[in-house]
Amino acid sequence: MGSFVSDPEKEKLETVISIEGLYKSFDDLQVLSGIDLILHRQENLTVLGRSGSGKSVLLKIITGLLKPDKGDVYVFGKRVDKISLTELNSLRLRIGFSFQSGALYDSMNVYQNLAFPLTMNYKNIDRKEVKRSIEEVLDAVALSEKIYQMPADLSGGQRKRIGIARALITKPEIMLYDEPTAGLDPITSVEIIDLINEVQHKYNTSSIIITHDLTCAKNTGNRIAMLGDGKFLQVGKFDVVFSSNDERIKGFYNYNFIQ
Q1: Which of 46, 78, 145, 157 has the highest Cβ tally under 10 A?
Q2: What is the CATH number of the domain that holds 182?
């Protein structure tokens, strides 16, 4: 089953993302108010929170798309807001980003969508290597037969899978998932949850999974981080987090969780 991390709290595990004292606001709206976070190698960490709680902002800061107002954000030991654009682009190649919408180009078929990040980032890559890489990731997401389909001809779940395939094609060490089960029916959601776990095992990725779906969080996260009021209210195993007496956590559980 690959390198599944069963005890991510052990100090011997390597840290791939380290965040300390992170603050971010937009005008008068304070979104993040002192975030501390560590992601270990080969760990799935799920970040839970209500809509507008700052979950997606956190991902954008990790990838250098937004700058923090205050705090330290390190990815693979590099401080993201202090490195050059060349170093940042190199760092981003080690990170796969699966967007909520799938973010496929509507004018390109599946093959072209998957080829795009390869040909953009590796100028000397030959066509055989591109095709081999595309076939590999399509096999990983169980959609090999859709290789020449247009995005408009795919279901919502299939678009999510192709989006994950595109994130995987550069063989990233970190995967970032933004609301991977949003808008999907329960059966398709379970398929995406299974795929996230398969990616962790097959590719030995470290992942942050942003979601408000407790079923997704419980079944993908080695640890859960509950975000509220701009801070992590609780971080730990699912059952530990939701045994908290914090009314904000209890309310989130009672409103969202479906057995």
Answers
A1: 46
A2: 3.40.50.300
